[in-house]
Structure formats: structure tokens, C-alpha cells
Amino acid sequence: MLRRKPTRLELKLDDIEEFESIRKDLETRKKQKEDVEVVGGNDGEGAIGLSSDPKSREQMINDRIGYKPQPKPNNRSSQFGSFEF
Fold first, then answer.
1. 57: nearest Cα among 41, 37, 49
2. CA-CA distance, 37 to 31, in Å (whole number)?
3. How buried is 40 (Cβ within 10 angstroms: 0-12 exposed, 13-18 middle, 19+ buried)?
4. Which of 4, 6, 16, 77 is 20 to 30 A distant from 22 in Cα terms?
5. Which intervals carry biased composition (Polar residues) (predicted)?
6. Separation of alpha carbons 59 and 80, rounded Å
7. pTM of the entire structure?
């Protein structure tokens, strides 16, 4: 195995700004989630309302992992290719 010198990483101003913006977003989401839990804990509706919508949960997961599903085309040429009979 060849040894090489360590790669030098430079911290740029853009990286710091991006980190700060992401951290603020996470903090606001955490506060909103805590607010929903507090409201849901009082009347029992908040937690049930969040878990009863699987589409939004699925959408949140897809957004988090960067998955963007494409609708499947519904015509025969896309299913079987362009075969000539």
C-alpha cells in the first residue's frame, strides 16, 4: 500500500455559513416538534395526527435521503421495449 501525505482541508466562509443555516433549521424543527408534542400531550390528538398520515412521513424520509421517485409510465412500449412483431 502506498503512503501519501495527508490532504489538507480548508475551512471556507461559505462552509461556515452553510453549517450555521443548517443548525438553525434543525433547531427550529426541534422547537416545532417539541411544541407539537406539548400540544399533543395535553389533548392526545397531536401525536396521533402525525402518525396517521403515512404519506407525509414517507415524503419526509424521501426528502431526508434525497430520493425523488419518478412516476412509472403506463404504456406498453415502456413495459416491453420497442419489439417489432
1. 49
2. 10
3. middle
4. 6
5. 73-85
6. 30
7. 0.37
Which residues are within 8 A (CB) of 40 and not within 5 positions of it... i.e. 6 or more apart?
46, 47, 48, 49, 50
Cell of 21: 443555516
Ordered DSSP codes for 39-70: HHHHHS-HHHHHHT-HHHHHHHHHHHHT----
Residue 62, C-alpha cell as written in the block: 424521501
